[in-house]
Amino acid sequence: MALELVGGAFLSASLQVLFDRLASSDSLDFIRGQKLSDSLLSKLKIKLLIVDAVLNHAEMKQFTDPAVKEWLLHVKGTLYDAEDLLDEIATEALRCKMEADDHSQTGSAQVWNSISTWVKAPFANYQSSIESRVKEMIGQLEDLAQAIDKLGLKPGDDQKLPPRSPSTSLVDESCVFGRNEIKEEIMTRLLSDNVSTNKIDVISIVGMGGAGKTTLAQLLYKRRQSGGTL
Fold it and tell me: What molecular function does GO assign, one term (predicted)?
């Protein structure tokens, strides 16, 4: 896990999902019914925005700074925890709303009672833990936010990822041994006059990893470039 590269785009998408769920009217009504203050929800959103602002820079910097890579992994874990909590809230909010709808046929007094139940109903024995879990999540995000300056992460950094080394089909034949016979056999088959002109001849090069399959293909390609025709 420590060696895994964490994609900023993936984390940004996860954050957008969290923002959408925090803005859901059903979830907001249910959370407020648990007497969770709006200021606490605002604080949670602000902390998420602070982390989101530096994700692009962190994604680039993780290639050269192991501490940034570790920071991103902690961000990923915290976002997973936040998604789990908001999923539970959304599920419970939907359950309570459906129960209120089911009981809406029994009379106006009970309808209002059902609506009140939907907004104020606790998670059974889970009621007291909602606020504590949100506070715990805010604490984790605060720790991550405090590390931003120490890691030298900048908001709005649009630098591109370091370019990959260009690939090449060239191969140093002086470093290749024991492949001439196989190479000539394949070339003979590919250039054979017996091959039907109406059919493309395909020869598979198979074998275990490290056996030199790619090297052999590169040798054949180099032979073609130097004057052969395939």
Answer: ADP binding
